[in-house]
Design brief:
The complex is a heterodimer of chains A (413) and B (314). With 413 residues, chain A is mainly alpha-helical. Chain A has helices at 2-17, 19-41, 69-77, 94-102, 116-121, 140-175, 180-206, 219-240, 242-249, 251-257, 262-292, 299-323, 327-345, 356-362, 366-378, 387-411; strands spanning 51-57, 86-90, 108-112, 132-135. The relative contact order of chain A is 0.11. Classes of the chains: A mainly alpha (413), B alpha/beta (314). The structure holds adenosine-5'-triphosphate and magnesium ion.
């Protein structure tokens, strides 16, 4: 046991003194994550560049002072809650607003008609009024956000109008109250101010996300988890390759002349590989947390995923080594295998495409499962939620490992 | 019984067509002696050492070290031996000390004993002040010394040294050879391989001459040189008329044989000390001057030449 640890310690020390290896194991994944994260995400969060919205509020107001449904829409669109998503400015006329969209100054124009409040607060339930959305067809996301927000507001107003109309009908039955219009107006106003609209908006603001309890996955986190697994393959391969370089350089034969059993020497190498990628993963996880503020998720899931990923990387590296005769051969075979696995498993594409044929192909790679596991974990999932994303790669790791042991036994017998 | 017993050891690489590197070699090494395998490149020295180190399985025969068979009990053999491989087998990115500590652990040392042995070996290989330097920053001779030091950590009963002085400066070579003699004097048994005749002659208690996988002679240096006869060889040049001079030298007392080889006369004699003054006398009487004269005591080179018809170093 002491000998196994001595071998592992020696390899670990050598790896962490080897600057090119460190660059490959630690700097490359971090740099790529930073670069791609910046390119796709513009920073830490799942930021979509704020959509520029122009509002032309032509609303003349309701019958009573202070009744302005148009102003309500405008203030919701420019509310604090939406300021990351929408950047709202105003125009004085419908034409100016449309012009702003045509000129590319804004992605969406929201034009509130003159009679908007009159219809909303008015007593005629059959009256209609249309809020116009004039949008640049290329700004799909921004447009649909505005559509969602405005649509929600309108739905609320419509609900208020229905309620008010009901109230008016009741009063009319009783006494033909002349103030029916006023009651309807007040009811509508009450409804909008009593939180109906804002409550509705909160829901609409959440609707683009998958579910109320899930956290957002930062783009950098998604990229770094993929890169981490990919570069763990190389980290493991680096150490596993020392089995061949030591064989070539005579230190492996020399080990065999010491009273150290072959099994111990091979086990020592296996531990070296495993511990090295484990250290690599831990450094990357911590660096990701510190440099990119990535929320990796619950500790149990993170620990298990990391250990299983290290097992997969180690098992695969040893398997590759067991097939290669020279270090150069191992490098060539390994790079090919890792690249193909990474492409199939989605290390470079993240979880965005886990559907269709690609989704099925990913399931045939251990890394595909691991990436899925990281996605769930970063969304707040626990060990139980990712049991398959742990068990399947673990199965791969064990299979790789056993195969490698068998082949190497024969070789170093 | 000999501490190392080699019986009909054979090794063919990649049978059935591969090189027959060791072809039925038998010898015994006594406790506390330096035994050398002397032979040219490719003679099978390293292959023999590998089999005696349990690195290679013999294709025939067996060997025992301290009574343990290399075939059936390799673990026990490995505990008895220290192996210095022909090519330096160290971790270049680790310091001398780190290397020694690592290999010491592989030999089962630990704790204070490990530390003490590492210090002792560093002293022995005179690298105490460079112990913290990485091995790849060392000169060839220093690497060789660390390479040897590794095999001494566990104080093996038997030490194998495979051409440990190849490619180093005379000073380092001297210190290595002195070190080996000192180890022998402390009771270690040493199996040494070399293709330097002078080294074998200086170090060895007994020498086995090997060629093409076969052992062609074995014995002490004196025993071996007797194979070519006991005379010394004197070769001389004179300033003029070599043939006439050779005729006169043939008459000199103590000279057994004179032959002309190209532009020099080659004489064989039992006792060059007595004969040489007479050769000068004869030359003076004949009015000739000796311009060059060489005395060669019988050596292993001559034995090898005698037995194989080839020079040891081509
Ligand atoms: N691994 C191998 N596979 C095939 N043939 C080998 C192998 N190792 C050595 N040989 C062959 O076996 C023969 C003996 O080689 P060996 O290395 O034992 O000689 P040596 O006496 O140590 O020579 P040197 O002085 O050059 O070290 C040579 O012909 C060599 O080519
Ligand atoms: Mg050799």
């Amino acid at each position: 046991m002491i000998k196994i640890l001595a071998i592992a310690w020696k390899d670990l020390r050598s790896t962490f003194r080897n600057v090119p290896a460190l660059v490959m194991m630690l700097v490359a994944p971090l740099a790529l994550a930073a670069l791609l994260g910046f390119a796709f995400g513009g920073g830490g969060g799942f930021d979509i560049a704020a959509t520029k919205v122009v509002v032309a509020n032509l609303d003349k107001g309701g019958a009573e002072a202070g009744q302005s449904a148009g102003a309500a829409i405008q203030s919701i669109l420019s509310s604090k809650d939406l300021k990351d998503v929408l950047e709202t400015s105003t125009k004085s006329s419908a034409a100016a607003a449309r012009q702003a969209v045509d000129d590319g100054e804004a992605a969406v124009a929201v034009i509130v008609p003159e009679d908007f409040s009159a219809v909303v607060y008015g007593s005629d339930p059959t009256a209609t009024s249309q809020v116009e959305l004039y949008e640049n067809p290329t700004s799909e996301i921004g447009g649909s956000i505005v559509e969602g927000v405005v649509g929600q507001v309108l739905a609320d107003f419509n609900g208020a109008r229905a309620a008010a109309a009901g109230a008016v009908a009741l009063r009319s039955d009783a006494a033909g109250d002349p103030a029916a219009a006023q009651v309807a107006g007040t009811a509508a106003e009450q409804f909008t101010h009593a939180g109906g609209v804002s409550a509705g908006l909160q829901i609409s603001q959440r609707s683009p996300q998958a579910g109320a309890t899930e956290k957002e996955v930062s783009v950098t986190g998604a990229i770094l988890s993929g890169m981490m697994i990919f570069f763990m393959f190389f980290g493991a391969a680096n150490v596993a390759r020392t089995i061949l370089t030591e064989d070539r350089d005579g230190t492996m034969p020399r080990l065999f002349t010491t009273p150290t059993r072959h099994g111990v020497i091979i086990a020592g190498k296996f531990v070296s590989v495993f511990v090295t990628v484990l250290v690599q993963a831990i450094v990357l996880l911590i660096a990701g947390r510190l440099m990119f503020s990535i929320q990796w998720g619950r500790l149990d899931a993170v620990v298990l995923l990391t250990v299983v990923a290290a097992g997969v990387a180690g098992g695969l590296a040893l398997l590759v080594i067991s097939f290669a005769k020279t270090p150069a051969q191992a490098g060539a075979i390994g790079s090919g295998v890792y690249l193909i696995l990474a492409l199939l498993g989605g290390n470079f594409t993240g979880t965005a495409q886990t559907s269709g044929v690609y989704g099925i192909v990913q399931k045939f790679t251990p890394n595909g499962w691991l990436i899925e596991g990281w996605d769930t974990t970063m969304r707040g999932g626990g060990a139980l939620d990712i049991r398959w994303q742990l068990l399947v790669p673990l199965g791969f790791a064990v299979a790789f490992f056993l195969f490698a042991v068998l082949k190497m036994r024969r070789r170093f017998a | 019984m000999s501490i190392v017993e080699v019986k009909e050891l054979r090794k063919q690489y990649d049978p059935p067509k591969g090189v027959l590197a060791v072809d039925g070699v038998s010898f015994g090494i006594e406790q506390g002696e330096i035994f050398s395998l002397l032979g040219p490149n490719g003679a099978g020295k390293s292959t023999t050492i590998s089999m005696l180190s349990c690195l290679l399985k013999p294709t025939g025969g067996d060997a025992t070290v301290a009574g343990h068979s290399v075939v059936s009990d390799p673990q026990a053999v490995k505990e008895t031996i220290g192996v210095v491989p022909q090519d330096i087998a160290l971790y270049p990115d680790m310091s001398a000390r780190e290397n020694l500590v690592f290999w010491g652990r592989m030999y089962g040392l630990s704790g204070d004993e490990l530390k003490r042995r590492v210090d002792e070996v560093l002293e022995l290989i005179t690298l105490v002040d460079r112990q913290k330097d990485r091995v790849d920053k060392f000169s060839g001779g220093m690497k060789r010394r660390v390479n040897i030091g590794v095999a001494l950590l566990h104080k093996p009963k038997v030490l194998y040294l495979d051409e440990p002085t190849v490619g180093i400066d005379p000073q380092s070579r001297r210190s290595i050879l002195d070190g080996i003699l000192a180890l022998r004097d402390q009771g270690m048994t040493i199996l040494y391989t070399t293709h330097y005749m002078a080294e074998a002659q200086e170090l060895s208690d007994r020498i086995a001459i090997v060629d093409h996988g076969k052992m062609i002679a074995v014995g002490t240096h004196e025993e071996l040189v007797k194979i070519v006869g006991e005379g010394a060889r004197v070769s001389a040049r004179v300033d003029h008329y070599l043939e006439g001079m050779a005729e006169r030298w043939r008459e000199v007392k103590g000279v057994e044989k004179v032959e002309i080889e190209e532009d020099e006369a080659v004489l064989l004699t039992e006792d060059p000390n007595e004969v040489l003054p007479r050769l000068f006398e004869a030359a003076a009487t004949a009015g000739s001057r000796i311009t060059e004269i060489n005395v060669t005591e019988p050596n292993l080179e001559m034995v090898f030449l005698h037995l194989t018809g080839r020079a040891l170093r081509e």
